[in-house]
Amino acid sequence: MMNSYRQNEGRRRLFFATIFVFVVFGIDALFGGRVRGLVRAGGTYVFNAGAYALVRIADSGFFSSRRALSEDNRSLRERIAELEVRAAAVEVLKDENASLRAIARLAETEKGITAPVISSVRSSPYGTFSIGAGADDGIIEGSLVTTGDSAVGGFVVGQVSDVGRRTALVRELFAPNTSVAVVIRGASATALGRGGGNARAEVPRGLPVVSGDPVTSRLFGGRAVGVVGSVRSEPSSATSEVYIGLPVNLVALQFVYVISGI
Question: pTM score, two decimals?
Answer without folding.
Answer: 0.59
